[in-house]
UniProtKB/TrEMBL annotation:
Pfam families hit by this protein: Abhydrolase_1
Gene Ontology MF terms: hydrolase activity
Protein name from the UniProt record: Alpha/beta hydrolase
Key words of the record: Hydrolase
Domain AB hydrolase-1 span(s) in chain numbering: 42-280
Superkingdom in the source lineage: Bacteria
InterPro entries noted in UniProt: AB_hydrolase_1, AB_hydrolase_fold, Epox_hydrolase-like
Amino acid sequence: MTSQAHPYADLAARLGGHATTFTTPEGELTGYTAGDLGASTPVILVHGWPEFASCWEPIASELLKAGHPILAYDQRGYSPGLRPDALEEYTVEKLVNDLGAVADTAGIECFHLVGHDWGGVMGWAAVPHMPHRIQTFTSLASAHTRAHGEMIARDPDQYERMEYLRKIRHHPEQIVASMLRDDAAKLRSVYQGAIPRHIEDAYVQRLSDPEVLAASLKYYRALGLGTDMPTQPITVPTLYVWGSEDAAFARSSAELTGQYVEGPYEFVELTGRSHWLPEEAPEVVAAHLLKHFARG
């Protein structure tokens, strides 16, 4: 692991931590750590689309104040050191393997896992894959994958919310060009005006590289190429936090999620909050996380 010429040097310094490059068997993932990873159970924070590990800074700050060491990383495609061309390199299984490899590289055996959006999708698959390593799991926004799939088939509202996914899968090149046109107006619209402008600008600056944006969209295009839906039950203590104004995940998917969790489970609805919970409601989310960790 190194920390030279790193995109998270300033962020890590603000947290009193270290900008880090995690070298895995498949490539390098950029990220940062803060706190003593060996002193207590670390929290691994995994971002979604279209975000980066920087989305966690406000939440990480709150967790560190409470004594929880943290680790966050840019997923494959977002990290320049692991941006493969082949579509099959972006399956959920690959994302789960990356999580395990990052934990191994950092010397972490057991951890709390928190994922937002695609980080949550990955998390629902990771928990049954490595329940001995994940002490608790929290998904922000993302319903359980099977609950979501069931509601896409049964609920017209949830089906309509996935129209963007169908466009990405069938017309990826056109989507990239369209999103970046006119100062990335369509890409900016994804954030629903719900996150601070300086954070939005930082995301857009990095995603304005067509190669980065195209790689991030491969997550959607790779759906169906692997085993996307976990079939084993979720047995670790699980917290699901959902905003009532989430544009991607309908209430039907959110409320069905608990049926796929056999372990201790809590569903928290944040009234009036959107999909962008790490950026929009960090202090509220952090408070729920701390309660969850204490119970787990």
